[in-house]
């Protein structure tokens, strides 16, 4: 077929139509796209008017760069290929664009986006998480050259499959991300990625549900810090959901606690108790609907869950599940990047999650109390809960609340969460906490999606999402990362875990106080620095895993 080797030749098409000069077709395509882009961008700008948190590299912006890059090397082979290009632009402009590379190669040809990456040898960093399989997936991302954000994104999606009791796609959460270079996204300081649960304003239903924030939160983390193709980070979770995995000890324990009420929902029973009893550790967990949802996120982009076909399906399914979600609420449910709560610790600094992830504020208060009297963790625990209760009652400046002695009504029992920490070979780090606001959230699965809907509790019953990262601003180097869970004990777990890591040459010399659980990574001589002393630990009383390579 003529015209394959250059942009200037005539291209014959099988239908008999002759198109002279691919530059003409390129101008037509770009002109069409620019008109569509201007219209679509205006809609998105209007929706995001009240928020500065739209991720860098939104679905549409990603499409702009990718399509124009494609047209710069566009070779007209057939009229059908040009029509396919227009169709590709239309589809991706309405959703995310993580699947643009794969779809573009399908329509336009060309080499694969990435060959199987080489596995690194030597120091790759480490991971500590409450889910062993999710931790292994994150370690593998590090081993193949991914950075801490890449590994954290893959880990978060993996948890939606392996531990949906605490981290389904319906969940909310918060992360701290740190990149040592002063020219990085956080300018050499840890930055908070906040995707805490938001209530739906939809009326009706007997199980109020929160908006699903996990996917957009992980995408914002990726957009600001990631390096690998986004779809590549979703594939492990998708495959686990489709083909099944053995039930982990952590999930089996959660199923044993709430199996009766959970299996009252027929959609949940089909997944977690197909024989009428909750799945036990080691039994096969298969989630084909969730696998299909993850595939849609990978191909169409995360935006599809919030303003595309997936969003429409989820809205309809949520009503059937008794926890109705509103389409407008989904569109407006944006995560945001924010500064962390920061304090000096000798020559180093410690950063904590800020409100609305107020477990970080509580952890800061507990950490300050431990610095004053390290022998009284009970007083530090009481101080953490007092500060969290005060902020929930009054709001205001978090640091002023942390220093206040005002009284506040005590907090009720708080819901469970899960957490993880990741460090890569360059010293980039991520620490996250995620929650369904109740074990298995509403206890209902949105039919046809595989998504366990998160609960929507009152303000005073939200989980304590707690995480911290210690770093050296002058050295531009990582020192330690801690994330915590354990309901009322999550904030104290982070405070004690961080203090012990900074005072020791090992990540977790002793377990944190009950009921808290912690995941810790520590580099006593910093990173960049002496890699040989870096270590990682998952709480020995839990069912998690710490993995990495020296």
Q: How would you explain this protein's 3D organization?
A:
The chain is α+β, with helices and mostly antiparallel strands and 550 residues long. It has two domains: 10-108, no CATH class; 125-337 and 414-543, no CATH class. Helix content is 41%, strand content 17%. The protein has helices spanning 22-47, 59-72, 79-93, 100-108, 132-143, 148-162, 164-167, 214-225, 230-243, 249-262, 266-272, 288-300, 304-307, 309-320, 327-332, 359-372, 377-394, 398-402, 490-503, and strands at 10-12, 18-20, 125-129, 172-178, 191-195, 245-246, 284-285, 336-339, 341-345, 348-352, 418-424, 429-435, 445-446, 451-452, 466-472, 477-485, 517-527, 535-538, 545-549. The strands form five sheets. The chain has a seven-stranded antiparallel β-sheet, with helices on one face. It has a six-stranded antiparallel β-sheet with strand order 9-10-15-16-17-18. Helix 1 runs parallel beside helix 3 (79-93), helix 6 (148-162) packs antiparallel against helix 8 and helix 16 (359-372) crosses helix 19 (490-503). The longest helix has 26 residues, at 22-47. The N and C termini lie far apart (53 Å). Residues 1-114 have low confidence and may be disordered.
Major sheet: size, sense and barrel closure?
Answer: 7 strands, antiparallel
Apparent shape: globular
Distance between the termini: 53 Å
Overall mean pLDDT stands at 84
Report the β-strand fraction as a percent range.
15-25%
* Helix percentage range: 40-55%
Q: How are the strands of the largest sheet arranged?
A: 8-5-4-12-11-3-19
* Overall radius of gyration: 24 Å
Query: From the helix content, strand content and strand pairing, which structural class follows?
Result: alpha+beta
The tally of strands reads: 19
Number of continuous helical runs: 19
Low-confidence stretches: 1-114
Question: How many domains?
Answer: 2
């Amino acid at each position: 077929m003529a015209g394959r080797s250059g942009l200037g030749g005539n291209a014959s098409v099988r239908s008999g139509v002759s198109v002279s000069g691919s530059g003409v077709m390129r101008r037509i395509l770009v002109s069409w796209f620019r008109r569509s882009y201007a219209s679509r961008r205006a809609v998105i700008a209007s929706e995001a008017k009240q928020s500065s948190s739209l991720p860098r590299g939104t679905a549409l912006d990603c499409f702009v760069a990718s399509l124009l890059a494609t047209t710069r090397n566009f070779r007209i082979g057939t009229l059908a290929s040009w029509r396919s290009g227009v169709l590709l632009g239309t589809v991706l402009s309405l959703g995310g664009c993580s699947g643009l590379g794969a779809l573009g190669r399908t329509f336009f040809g060309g080499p694969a986006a990435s060959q199987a990456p080489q596995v690194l040898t030597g120091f790759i960093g480490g991971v500590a998480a409450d889910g062993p399989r999710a931790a292994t997936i994150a370690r593998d991302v590090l081993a193949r050259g991914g950075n801490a954000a890449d590994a954290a994104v893959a880990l978060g999606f993996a948890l939606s499959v392996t531990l949906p009791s605490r981290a389904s796609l319906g969940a909310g959460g918060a992360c701290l991300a740190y990149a040592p270079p002063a020219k990085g996204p956080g300018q050499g300081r840890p930055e908070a990625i906040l995707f805490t649960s938001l209530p739906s304003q939809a009326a009706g239903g007997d199980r109020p549900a929160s908006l699903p924030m996990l996917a957009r939160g992980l995408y914002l983390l990726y957009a600001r810090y990631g390096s690998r193709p986004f779809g590549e980070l979703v594939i492990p979770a998708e495959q686990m959901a489709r083909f099944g995995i053995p039930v982990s000890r952590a999930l089996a324990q959660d199923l044993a606690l709430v199996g009766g009420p959970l299996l009252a929902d027929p959609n949940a029973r089909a997944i977690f108790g197909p024989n009428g009893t909750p799945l036990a550790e080691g039994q096969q967990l298969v989630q084909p609907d969730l696998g299909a949802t993850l595939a849609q996120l990978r191909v169409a982009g995360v935006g599809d869950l919030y303003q595309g076909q997936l969003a429409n399906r989820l809205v309809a399914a949520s009503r059937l599940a008794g926890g109705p979600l509103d389409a407008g609420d989904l569109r407006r449910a944006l995560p945001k990047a924010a500064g962390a709560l920061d304090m000096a610790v000798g020559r180093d600094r410690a950063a904590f999650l800020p409100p609305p992830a107020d477990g970080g504020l509580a952890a800061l208060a507990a950490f300050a109390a431990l610095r004053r009297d390290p022998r009284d963790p009970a007083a530090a625990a009481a101080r953490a809960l007092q500060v969290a209760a005060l902020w929930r009652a009054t709001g205001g400046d978090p640091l002023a609340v942390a220093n206040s002695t005002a009284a506040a009504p005590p907090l009720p029992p708080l819901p469970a969460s899960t957490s993880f920490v990741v460090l890569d070979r360059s010293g980039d780090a991520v620490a996250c906490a995620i929650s369904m606001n109740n074990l298995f959230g509403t206890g209902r699965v949105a039919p046809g999606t595989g998504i366990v809907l998160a609960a929507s509790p009152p303000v005073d019953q939200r989980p304590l999402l707690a995480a911290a990262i210690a770093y050296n601003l002058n050295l531009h180097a990582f020192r330690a990362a801690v994330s915590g869970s354990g309901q009322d004990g999550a904030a104290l777990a982070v405070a004690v875990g961080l203090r012990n890591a900074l005072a020791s040459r090992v990540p977790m010399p002793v377990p944190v106080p009950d009921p808290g659980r912690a995941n810790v990574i520590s580099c006593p001589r910093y990173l960049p620095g002496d890699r040989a002393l870096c270590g990682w630990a998952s709480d020995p009383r839990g069912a998690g895993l710490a993995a990495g390579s020296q």
